[in-house]
Specification:
Layout (H helix, E strand, L loop, with lengths): L1 E5 L2 E5 L5 H17 L9 E2 L8 H8 L2 E2 L4 E3 L2 E3 L14
Parallel strand pairs: 3-4
Antiparallel strand pairs: 1-2, 5-6
Length: about 90
């Protein structure tokens, strides 16, 4: 499991195995308890790369929506090849 943080945005990367969402859910619960901040799960999305057979179950465990690629994160388009120069235009 790995993560990227920027202001109020967080990206978490994990393997698509059944135990990872449970661990992530526990981490988020502890984060809320320690920081006294609330995580708005209605805004959270889960994305998958490759073939994941039980994406609905993973989203249900985390209580979030299933998103699709391409998408944007901090005005950078995620999903296409990073060699595609046009994907950087919004950031530039």
């Amino acid at each position: 499991m790995s993560h990227l943080l920027f202001v109020d945005k967080t990206l978490v990367f994990c393997d698509a195995i059944e135990t990872q969402p449970n661990y992530l859910g526990q981490i988020l619960t502890w984060f809320q308890a320690v920081s006294r901040l609330q995580i708005n799960l209605r805004k959270c999305e889960i994305f998958f790369v490759g073939e994941v057979n039980y994406i609905g179950l993973l989203a249900q465990v985390l209580n979030c929506k299933v998103g699709g690629l391409p998408t944007t994160y901090l005005v950078v388009l995620l999903g296409p090849s990073n060699k595609d120069g046009t994907m950087w235009n919004p950031a530039i």
